[in-house]
Amino acid sequence: MSHLSSQIDLHCHSSASDGLLTPSALVQLAYDNGVKHMALTDHDTVSGLDEALLCGGELGVNVLAGVEFSAQWKNQGVHILGLDFNRHSPVIHSAVERQKESRFSRAQTIGDRLAKKGFSGLYDKALELSSGQAPGRPHIASAMVELGYVNSSAVAFKKYLGAGKVGDVKSVWPELNEVVSWIIDAGGVAIIAHPRKYNMTVTKLRSLIEDFVESGGEGLEVVTSGQKQGEIGLLADLCRKYGLKGSLGSDFHSPKQPWVRMGAIPPLPKSVVPVWKDWGLEL
Question: Which of 51, 64, 108, 256 could hold 39 in an S-S bridge, CB 3.0 to 4.6 Å?
Answer without folding.
Answer: 64
